[in-house]
Amino acid sequence: MFLRLAHQHRQFVQDLVMNLQALAIVLERNGYPASCYTCGDQMNSASFMVSLGDNHLIRFLVSDYGITWTEMRDDRELMKLEGAEAIHQLQELANLVKQSIQSSTGHKTLIKKC
């Protein structure tokens, strides 16, 4: 049972890393400075960052040790979430990106809602 759970966890982290990479690409294509760095080929960890302008920065870290969402403005930490709450916040960001792409106002929609 524990080996199965460990395998599922590794698969979950890999899926999350792939989605972070895709989100970084979409954000970059829409004018937001974004990056997603991974360590090695196994995709068992990643560091995702995006700047939403006005010194507003989002950092999302994922690894076997945990998942963290940190939101900063003017070099001050506004919010730090872990685990499921961090993933939920990441989904909110992805939803805003999707709305921004579908909207004609682009950047203004994303920045206003975050």
Q: Helical segment tally?
A: 3
Which residues sit in consecutive blocks of at least 5 with pLDDT less than 50?
none
| Global morphology | globular
The tally of strands reads: 5
Quick check: average pLDDT?
A: 89
Q: What integer value in Å does the Rg equal?
A: 15 Å
Structural class: alpha+beta
Strand order of the largest sheet: 1-2-3-4-5
Helix content: 40-55%
Main beta-sheet strand count, sense and barrel state: 5 strands, antiparallel
Order of helices and strands: HEEEEEHH
Terminal Cα separation, in Å? 41 Å
Binned strand content: 25-35%
Quick structural gist:
This protein is an alpha+beta fold. 48% of the residues lie in helices and 32% in strands.
Please give a structural write-up.
This protein is of the alpha+beta class and 114 residues long. The protein is 48% helix and 32% strand. It has helices at residues 2-29, 83-102, 107-113, and strands at 34-38, 46-53, 56-63, 66-73, 76-82. It has a 5-stranded antiparallel beta sheet with strand order 1-2-3-4-5, covered by helices on one side. A hairpin with a 2-residue loop joins strand 3 and strand 4. Helix 2 (83-102) packs antiparallel against helix 3. It starts with a helix and ends with a helix. The mean pLDDT is 89.
List keywords for this structure.
114 residues; alpha+beta; 5-stranded antiparallel β-sheet; 3 helices; 5 strands; globular
Summarize the helices and strands and which ones pair or pack.
Blueprint: H1 2-29, E1 34-38, E2 46-53, E3 56-63, E4 66-73, E5 76-82, H2 83-102, H3 107-113
Antiparallel strand pairs: 1-2, 2-3, 3-4, 4-5
Helix pairs in contact: 2-3
